[in-house]
Fold this protein.
Amino acid sequence: MRPLSAILIAGPTASGKSGIALRLAERLGGALVNADSMQVYCDLKILSARPAPEEEARAPHFLFGHVDGATNYSVGRYLDDAAAVLSRLRAENRLPMFVGGTGLYFKALTQGISDIPHVPKALRAELRTWAEGLAPAELHAELAARDPLMAAKLRATDPQRILRALEVHAATGKSLAAFQGAKSPPLLDGRSCLALFLAPDRAGLREAIDRRFDAMIAAGALEELRALQARALDPALPVMRALGVPQLLSHLGGALDLDEAVRVAKRDTRAYAKRQFTFARHQLPEFRWVAPADAEAIAMEISE
C-alpha cells in the first residue's frame, strides 16, 4: 500500500471517535480535521461535543467552531474549507485525520459531490422569507407541486433539504435531481487513505449516549442554549436543529419540563445513531468497520 495520505475516522455519535483520533494524531504527527456538521458552529461547543481547549492543545485542530450559527453551511462550503486545510497540511507534511459523525461529509470527501448550480442570494432570501412559518409538510407539498421527482426522494420532515430543492428549481427551472448525476472529483483518493467506521456494541452505545447527554447538561448546555435562543435565528437553520437543541429550547420556552426534554433528546440521539449506521452501510462502502477498542491498533499497524 502507498503511504497514507489521510486517515478517516467515522462512526455514530458517542462512539469515542475524537479520543481515538487525538491519540493517533499525537503518535503519528497528524492534525485533526472536523467532519461533523454541527461541530463547525461556534454557537454549539457543549451540545456538539467539540474538543476542549486542553485537547486542542495536544494536536492541531481545523474546522471546529469556525462558522457562525446564522450561516446555512453546506457540504459544498465544507469541501472548499477542507481543500484549503488539506493544502496546508500537505505543505507541512502533516497527516490529515478527518474525524466526525457526518456521513455525508465523508461521502463527499471520498466520492465527490454533485455539481449543483449557484442560487442567487436574493432569490434564496426571498424563498426563506416565504417559507417562514410554514410547516415542513406544507413545504413538502409545495415541492411536490413544483418538483415531484425530488419530493419523492425527500422526507416531509426535512425542511432544509426541501428548501434547497425549491431554491434550485426556482433558480434553474429544473429538478435538483437533474444535477445530482454529475459529480466533482473527490478530494481524497480512497486507495491511499485508511477509512475506519467505529461500530460499537449497540447496548453500550445507547448507555454512552445517555451518559454524555447528562454530562452536557451538567457542563452548561442550558446556558449555551439560552445564548442561542437570544439570537432569534431562523428555526430552519441547521444549528437550530442540532441534536438536543429543539428539545432544550422547548424546555426554555416552557413547553417541556427538563426531565422530559432530556428524555426526548436522548431518544432522538439514539435514533440518529441508528441512521448513522444505516448511512455508512449503504453509502460508505470503502470504510472498514471496526470495534472502537481495535481502531487505534489497526491504524498504527497500517501506518508503520
